[in-house]
Amino acid sequence: MPEGRHVIAKHLVIHGRVQGVGYRDSAVQAAFMLNISGWVRNRSDGRVELLSEGSESDLLAFIARIEQKMEGYIAGKMVTWEQPTGEFGGFELAPTL
After folding, report:
1. Does pLDDT of 1 surpass 90?
2. Which domains occur in the chain, in start order?
3. In this structure, what are the phi and psi dihedrals at residue 76, rounded to the nearest 5 degrees?
């Protein structure tokens, strides 16, 4: 993240037919392109969970890019704002919860 840009964090839990369709890979690719840090993982209940940090404009573009690529698979999402930790050096696949 370039110095001077305000960092925010969003926690998302996505439901629908989002496992086994490339959702996590799409998130990793979009995060790399948009300088987003954090993680994405499958949940044992069939949902996918993300924690992402970046500038507000980059996070909005990140979420829009994933939603566009996964259109038809996402039935809904729960989004909460979090305090950014700055602990992530990139964006990674996390173990299933």
Report:
1. no
2. 8-93 (3.30.70.100)
3. 180, 170
